[in-house]
Amino acid sequence: MAACSVEDVLAKAEKEEAERLKSITVNKELDLDFDIGNLLALDKNSINSREFKQQNKNEFLRSLARDNTQLLINEIWKHPSEKVEEVIVVKLPDPVTQLPREKPVPKARPPTKWEQFAKLKGIQKKKKTNLVWDEVHKEWKRRWGYKRAKDDTKEWLIEVPENADPNEDQFAKRVHAKKERVAKNEFNRLKNIARSQKLKVPGVGLAPTSHQSKAELAKAVSVAKSATASVGKFQERLPKEKPQRNTGKKRQFQPLIGDFAGEKQKHLDMLKVIESKRPRLDITKAVNKQMREEDGESTERRKGKKGRRGNAPGKGRRNAPGGKGKGKGKGGASKGKGRKPAMRQGKR
Amino acid sequence: MRPLTDEETKTMFEKLSKYIGENIKLLVDRPDGTYCFRLHHDRVYYISEKILKLATNISRDKLVSVGTCFGKFTKTQKFRLHITALDFLAPYAKYKVWVKPGAEQSFLYGNHIMKSGLGRITENTSQYQGVVVYSMADVPLGFGVAAKTTQECRKVDPMAIVVFHQADVGEYIRNEDTLT
What we know:
A: 9 helices, B: alpha+beta
């Protein structure tokens, strides 16, 4: 019994040791959460921070990853496996975890003009059967398209309407009408696309632009002017017409740091030209001077008059209509505003 | 940054000559060094040659300002003087206007100068002549355009505008972000 028990214990110990060494078993405090459909394992065990700090961190993380991967693979092989072309495969269950989509949800196509109209009027789309009974051929035929029922292109004779021109080709007229309808539909389709992309909806034919801007008009004028045999050399200018800017010769700038002395000389020459263009006689200035002199003369005269009359000198008023003794008193002081000392004339 | 074209130089000189007349020569031809005008982002800068050479190390989009900004070219290729040019306009100004202390503040807030705020004015100022505005203590405050001749100034009523405001030193605060 004892021997047996010793053997048993030894065997048990050996088994345990082997189990421990066996690399495919991993012991965890908490079981991992698996989502095999996504090949996902979720480890909720807290990381032993002391061990993490003491050990080589890379080594620690690698071993943790290895253990968890081992557990994931163990979990995978719990599912039924089969052999396909000498390879053992496992059929994965459906994924449980919801993954967000990579790209944003595509925007809905904006409604076409007809769809807008139908919604406004409450028109619902009615499903029609694909096949209809053709009375002529006595069989079921498609409602439209190739070999359709009541095919009006296959008629060998068309009755000429009473009010129509008898020489008109009714077959050609029908073909033309069909082509027109197709073209119209295509045009509407393009208009819908343009509207959905917020482009300018094309109009019919070549419509003139609603309003030409000043710049556009100026450009048109300049183009029209240069469109002569002599490239507009002898073209007359309108009064006040400005030359077109930003056309023709490209400007060539002087270097930033170049001939400073030359630049200075050029500026001085330019100043000389500007100076010489100024008129020698400034008419407004001359008139002002004349006016001032006349003013001065008139005040002199008035001062003189008042002096003779015995009034206080220097209190003369500018536009006194020869007042007799009025210059004295309060009124004289208030009216003499134009002669305030603050209005001195500064020296240049 | 680039030198001005002949056309641009002419436009600028014509504008400057409204304020300082033929004294532009003194800006172009200076005894204390070589100074030049350079265009950068539509603005005209007055720079000494030395600083210009240093500024070439800075790329165009990073360079905010160099030297003294005189003004800018508008989209229609007109030249506008900026208040930063006042340092160079004030010493050479040909026509001056002095404002009374009471009207100083109004002018510095960007208002035109009324007859009531006018202290002194240079003799012989013609209409629409560029003038530099000073306080009574001879501190340059800005510049503008004479709305009336000196002669007319005497006769108009006190509320009439005599100088149109163009720029004043208050812009250093008001337009801090656009002045360079």
